[in-house]
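Action item from last week, closing it out:
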Amino acid sequence: MYVTKVKLRNIACFEDLELDFTNADGKPRMMTVLLGENMAGKTMFSKAVCLALAGETAQTILVSRPDDYHRQQARGLSAECRVSIEGGADAVFVPVYPNEPTPAVRPTLRRHNVVGYGTNRLALREDRVDESRLDRRIAPYESLFDDRPHLLPYPYARFTARMVAVPFAGSDDPAVDEEAAQIASALYQHRSDSFEEVIRNMVGDKVTLTETGSALGPLFHFDGFDGVDLAFGQLSDGYRAAFTLAGDLYRRLLDMTSNPGLDDPRLISAVVLIDEIDLLLHPRWQRVVLQGLRDAFPNVQFIVTTHSPVTSLGAKEGEIVVLKREGNHVVAKTDLPSVAGWRADQLLVSDFFGLPTAVDVATEDRIKEYRALAARSTLNAEETAKLHELAAALVLLPYRLPGIDRAAIEVGLQDAEQLAKAQALPEAERQRRQHRALEALRRAAEKVVER
């Protein structure tokens, strides 16, 4: 079950948006990265798609204020999110109030295999997990709609994942019970191994989990950490967040199967939406997180959002969509080049992120001031000194500004220095040298690109 197309009509900031989720060969695209400034609708897009796939029951529970999903400029008009599914009927989300007349377009009754994660990916306290009290109708995607902790704590998820749907015969025949026990033991081990592989893929480190049999739970051994074994509670927030997400998703996938003999839930196809995937991740992790998700869950179709150019570098050709506000609605830019071979700073000043410059604000101000002075036809002594000061600062930057003519600046500064040292020069020669120095600095200014 994979998404092939999404249509949004009068949903929040989306007036009429259609996005294709297939590759050039027509097959579903397994990774989509949504970029865009704040208020560009990335989270709302994810919520609308999740609600359509979750079905009518989840929509009724999670959408307490339908107005939040209606485009303000389209009050009174119908609104819907329609999700096309490979080989199946469309899934639909229609934001309506309980007492309103039945809409012409009915929301989807069926619940599809979908999991959603919001920006608050906190876990429930392990000693307070009571799955019998969790609302299974919305548990797989509740964190996308609610800021409170909803994820299963990692040690709990890992332990219970090995036990879910394991068959126990409970028979009067000892032979049957023996066979059931052997099956359970094999499933237990297979799931333990696959769970550990998921963790390694997610964090990009060589991690080994060792059972302790104590209240600490399994110990994590990291290659390169001088052989230190750490309990889950001793890990950094970043590691715990990554493991919690991986563990929760592993369990959610396992809960979707009706096959008690399934030894690896990674075989299950599903759609997973993750808002701001780069949260709590060091750039080293951000570079590999998309590929880590692909490797960890090869049959999952991911739709993620990010504000990180480093994370975006992990996207393959055609996987990035930029949402952008134009007036009172949002449009999607999909005709984007491949990011293969790009640097993160290049992404920042491209159509992917749209920043005017990748330098710090102070340097940007110096460049603007330099250009403004160099553009003047005449400068007094104070202005000339300031121009030389700014030029020297640009030449001494620890990196090369694309397009800046360092040679021209150096020529101009050298001429100015020689002129300052010259004791007796004819006025005509002094003016000629001043002009030459200024022209060199102007030529450099014309080539300065604030990136």
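Closing note: Residues 165-171 have pLDDT under 50 and may be disordered.
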